[in-house]
Write a structure and sequence with these properties.
The complex is a heterodimer.
Chain A (H helix, E strand, L loop, with lengths): L13 H17 L16 H10 L17 H14 L4 H17 L2 H12 L5 E4 L15 E5 L2 E9 L9 E7 L11 E7 L5 E6 L8 E12 L3 E2 L5 H13 L9 H11 L5 H29 L5 H25 L6 H17 L6 H11 L4
Parallel strand pairs in A: 1-4
Antiparallel strand pairs in A: 2-3, 3-7, 4-5, 5-8, 6-7
Helix pairs in contact in A: 1-3, 4-5, 4-6, 6-9, 7-9, 7-10, 8-9, 9-10, 9-11
Chain B lengths: L2 H16 L2 H8 L5 H9 L18 H13 L6 H14 L8 E13 L2 E12 L6 E8 L2 E8 L6 E4 L5 E11 L4 E4 L3 H34 L1 E2 L2 E2 L4 H22 L10 H26 L10 H11 L6 H15 L4 H7 L2
Parallel strand pairs in B: 1-3
Antiparallel strand pairs in B: 1-2, 2-6, 3-4, 4-7, 5-6, 8-9
Helix pairs in contact in B: 1-3, 1-4, 4-6, 5-6, 6-7, 6-8, 6-9, 7-8, 8-9, 8-10
Classes of the chains: A alpha+beta, B alpha+beta.
């Protein structure tokens, strides 16, 4: 009776078993012994790691071969992404391009755009940022003010985008901008453009987050010329395209694994003589994680079947974020009196970044609104 | 129409006709719904998935889980889970399942040879629906193995009380002689089978009732008007119901895993389901009751047929703390660096 509450059990295919072993062995070979593993997809980036991953064929792996892809299933892709996150590998550089930008180009882009960008993304050499939020536009995405005005041979962009992770290191941004004046239909008149972040009229200013990292940015456009060739899909169709992007953005394992390394280090700390409360906490976190993972695999199965699981994705993200937000809070109070430096660093990094978990990719309130729509309440 | 859909449609039709709120209320007042049991039995729904050799109607074990889940979603006051567990244990030891409703106890009993038969001794508390069953099935262990004992209840005294949900339960102090043909030896760990089947059935029962309280809560929010509009239009209500939906979806998914967890017995998956679903009951019933307001707190409203049962089932056959610790012990024993492997091995 409800939309989006059914998560049909999906078994990972036999092909993914061998793939999992390969990825696991590869990552263990890549990470130095003293590397502080972090399962937050946004926590570390390494162009070198991304390129080595690309050489393995593990970026853009569901895409057609003519664009460099491996034409593998979403379930295989699921295995690769979760193995990278669980190991705490530095995946930040290519993550967005692999997860959603490439998919947008594949779905809505021109043949020329696909040939131009996808093979470079696949090689781990080309990185994208998301350009959705603006200083006055957060959850209310339809209120974007950054505008593009038609000029000879292209468009002239003015305005700014904010919270764009990695924009200071990435090559391109897919920006959602207004190409027609706002009408009574707030969702009309929006378009998506590929913007070159190295354009001289683009200014990228870093914003320090509370952990002291400069990961996200404020990106300014001052009369940036974007050629016609860089518009994605149909002018005015931006809203529909953005909504379709969210199924990919919200349902993956990065929505519940961000705190995974904290759990691993906690299990290491409790050692051979855990208290009953510590055992119960480990069991509680496992029971939630195993279930979330199974739900997320169900969604990978829906993506593979060509469905657009918007409500399911929102539901996984809300449940998953609530979970990963809880992990450091519950572990903190049950940690042994004396703990290792590694445990403390892992825990503290997680606590400092945890406020972002329930904001990025759609706030908890927006997600619950999407779920409520699936329930028929709005 | 596939087998599963056929079973779902059949059980739903029967329950809609014969398991109304009045039926459940009457059962709470002591009226056994004999007609409902008979209809279910006539339709082969009380022993689905149990081999014909053991007295069942054949098919997949998952069929029984489906029936038990559907029945639980409307608070069916019958020992369907207990009968299924008993039948499954009979099947495992090659015994013939006694007719009618049968109950089980997870307490440990001792068995000693006496004459041509055996003496069975032990205590059992909170045995569900024992006052309506002719047979109690228990497990006794000795040095040589496990034994399934079929205990006729006619001549054994029992103290009957009611659970929080108003369902009958009995306490026993048993010291009786059993004929040799009522005792079945087995190389299986029957006690673990019984306990896990109990946890698995309670898990699917909770999943069924959880889905049902979400449906009731959404419907109520759309009908109930306050401040001139349905309360479903208020964001405060929408957000609460979205949280409830998330918990329910997780419980459904956890319960779905049990279809393949019974043969061979997958204790890890059963632990995951019982821990996850029992954990959800507190917050889920809190939201359902809050949305229903004072109306949902009355005996008259059917919400309590589900929520009172959920409050019982979450504690039966191991509460969430019990199963969480069991998972925790397993994970710790694998070592910190194998945690992820444990998770992916679970599938």
């Amino acid at each position: 009776m409800f939309q989006g509450l059914q998560f049909e059990p999906v078994k990972l295919p036999q092909s993914s078993v061998a793939l999992r072993a390969e990825v696991r062995a590869f990552v263990e070979g890549e990470l130095a012994a003293d590397y502080l593993r972090n399962s937050d997809f946004n926590a570390g980036e390494s162009a070198e790691f991304s390129q080595r991953l690309g050489q393995q064929g593990w970026i853009g792996m569901t895409w057609p071969k003519q664009y460099g892809g491996a034409e593998r299933s979403f379930l295989d892709r699921y295995v690769v992404t979760e193995e990278l996150l669980a190991a705490g590998a530095p995946v930040g550089a290519h993550w967005i391009a692999d997860r959603q930008s490439g998919g947008q180009l594949l779905k809505f882009g021109t043949e020329a755009q696909r040939l131009e960008y996808l093979p470079r993304i696949v090689r781990g050499e080309c990185y994208f940022s998301i350009g959705m939020s603006e200083p006055d536009t957060g959850s209310d995405l339809a209120s974007v003010r950054t505008s593009a005005v038609k000029v000879d041979g292209g468009w002239c962009l003015n305005g700014s985008k904010i919270w764009s992770s990695g924009a200071h290191m990435n090559h391109y941004m897919i920006a959602l901008v207004r190409t027609e004046a706002q009408s009574s239909n707030r969702h009309a008149g929006l378009s998506q453009f590929i913007v070159d972040l190295h354009d001289p009229n683009v200014t990228v200013k870093g914003i320090l987050n509370l952990a002291g990292d400069s990961d996200f940015n404020h990106v300014f456009f001052d009369d940036v010329f974007v050629p016609d060739a860089n518009i994605i899909g149909t002018p005015g169709n931006g809203w529909e395209q953005v909504v379709s992007e969210l199924g990919y953005e919200r349902s993956g394992p990065e929505r519940f694994l961000s705190a995974f390394r904290v759990l691993v280090e906690f299990i290491r700390e409790v050692g051979d003589n855990p208290t009953a409360a510590q055992l119960a906490l480990i069991g509680r976190l496992l029971a939630n994680l195993v279930t979330l993972r199974r739900m997320s695999i169900s969604v990978a199965g829906m993506l593979e079947a060509g469905k657009t699981p918007i409500t399911e994705a929102a539901l996984i993200k809300d449940l998953g974020n609530t979970y990963e937000r809880l992990v450091p809070e519950l572990i903190r109070v049950l940690a042994p009196a004396k703990t290792s430096q590694r445990f403390q660093n892992t825990l503290h990094q997680c606590i400092l970044h945890a406020p972002s978990f329930t904001l990025r990719g759609g706030t908890r309130e927006i997600l619950r609104g999407v779920i409520a729509r699936g329930l028929g309440l709005r | 129409m596939n087998e599963q859909q056929l079973i779902t449609d059949t059980i739903r039709r029967i329950l809609q006709d014969q398991c109304t709120k009045a039926t459940v209320d009457a059962a709470e007042a002591g009226v056994w719904p004999a007609g409902l049991w008979q209809t279910l039995e006539d339709n082969g729904l009380t022993l689905a998935g149990i081999s014909e050799a053991s007295g069942g109607t054949g098919g997949e074990l998952a069929a029984s889980l489906l029936i038990i889940r559907e029945a639980a979603s409307v608070g069916t006051p019958l020992p369907l889970a207990e009968t299924f567990i008993a039948a499954r244990l009979c099947e495992l030891v090659g015994a013939q399942m006694p007719p009618g409703p049968v109950t089980v106890s997870g307490s440990t009993f001792t068995l000693t040879q006496e004459g041509a038969g055996y003496r069975l001794q032990g205590q059992a508390e909170g045995v569900a629906f024992a006052n309506q069953c002719s047979t109690l099935i228990v497990v006794a262990n000795d040095a040589s193995g496990a034994y399934l004992c079929l205990v006729p209840l006619a001549e054994i005294s029992q103290t009957v009380t009611q659970t929080m949900a108003g369902e009958p339960q009995s306490d026993f102090s048993i010291n009786c002689l059993l004929p040799a043909d009522a005792v079945f030896g087995s190389t299986e760990d029957l006690a673990a089978q019984l306990w896990c089947l109990g946890a698995a059935t309670r898990s699917v029962m909770m999943a069924g009732a959880m889905t049902s309280i979400l449906e009731q809560s959404v419907q109520y929010a759309m009908e109930r008007q306050q401040f001139g509009r349905p309360i479903a239009q208020f964001q405060a209500i929408q957000q609460q119901l979205a949280v409830l939906a998330g918990e329910v979806a997780a419980c459904q998914r956890a319960a779905d895993s049990l279809n393949e967890a019974l043969v061979p017995l997958n204790e890890f998956d059963i632990a995951i389901a019982k821990a996850r679903i029992s954990e959800a009951v507190g917050s889920a019933t809190d939201i359902a009751h809050q949305v229903h307001g004072a109306m949902g707190y009355t005996m008259e409203h059917s919400l309590n047929l589900r929520t009172r049962r959920l409050w019982c089932w979450r504690d039966e056959y191991g509460n969430e703390d019990y199963w969480q610790q069991s998972i925790g012990r397993y994970v710790v024993a694998q070592g910190a660096d194998n945690t992820w492997k444990t998770i992916t091995d679970a599938g």
